[in-house]
Amino acid sequence: MRLLLVEDEQELASQLCKRLQDEGFVVDHAADGPSGLHFATDYPIDLAIVDLGLPGFSGLELIQRLRADGSRLPVLILTARQAWQDRVAGLEAGADDYLGKPFRMEELLARVNALLRRVGGWAHPVLEAGPIALDTRSQTVSLAGKALDLTAYEYRLLAYLMHRPDEVVSKLELTEHLYPDDADRDSNVIEVFIRRLRQKLDPDNSLHPIETLRGRGYSFRLGTPHRS
What is the pLDDT of residue 215? Predict the structure, then answer.
């Protein structure tokens, strides 16, 4: 998953970027409103974390501009402002959630994961489809209750597909959302990860959880996923 952090406090931004990257996210950082709008508009972002007090123009205006352009990008507000009116204004501008400063990193991660699940229609931290279960809290995957040994990139790829069940996801989209811009992006590696995932998720070749659509991409299609 690819996150955008729009935060002008450099020390806090560095800490957040590192922790989010440690949790497996690709993170883009902007330090002002105009740069944040550029990233949110022109980059393949899955979720934005936006501070309200930004130079250039405020986080509130950034959100308003995104929504005016029809963007449905999930937005989590960070704010040191204590007045409830400021938080209400952020939500009414189109933000999906807010978190007051100071905060614990665990709560930020929980809110980020909850918003990402909501986009895919999942209500529970464990995404279940047939015998396959992906726990977004522990970042583990099991098959019929037995833990699977996945690499970090295999987990990220599966999580991205499972957050978008029945959607067609191209190789280009997967590379953009799984790798930072300065990474060596070899789209053929995606095929290797897909093959490995199929071997681990479907050793008997009976489930067929990941479908290949020639010339279009891949889709996670294992019956009707359980979203409760």
Answer: 87
Residue 12 has pLDDT above 60, yes or no: yes
Are β-strands 126-129 and 217-220 bridged in parallel, bridged antiparallel, or unpaired? unpaired
Q: What is the pLDDT of residue 150?
A: 94
Residue linked to tokens 């929504």: 67
Q: Which CATH class is domain 126-220?
A: mainly alpha
Residue type present at position 178: L
Instruction: Give me 160's structure tokens.
Output: 């991205």
Residues 217-226, buried b or exposed e (16+ Cβ, 10 A)?
bbbbbbeebe
Is 129 in contact with 222 (CB distance < 8 Å)?
yes
Letter for the amino acid at 62? L
Angle among Cα 11, 12, 17 to the nearest 5 degrees reads: 100
99-140 pLDDT, tens digit each: 988 899 999 999 999 998 887 777 788 999 999 999 988 899
Q: Which residue stretches of the chain are H helix?
A: 10-22, 33-42, 59-68, 84-93, 105-120, 152-162, 171-178, 188-201
Query: Does domain 2-120 bear CATH number 3.40.50.2300?
Result: yes
**Domain boundaries along the sequence of the chain:** 2-120, 126-220
Q: Residue 217: left (phi > 0), alpha (psi -120 to 50), or beta?
A: left
Phi, psi angle pair for 50, to nearest 5°:
-125, 125
Confidence category of residue 186, pLDDT binned at 50, 70, 90:
low
Q: What letter would DSSP give residue 179?
A: S
Q: Indicate the DSSP class of residue 53.
A: S
Q: Between these two residues, 120 and 157, which has the higher pLDDT value?
A: 157
The SS3 assignment for 76 reads strand
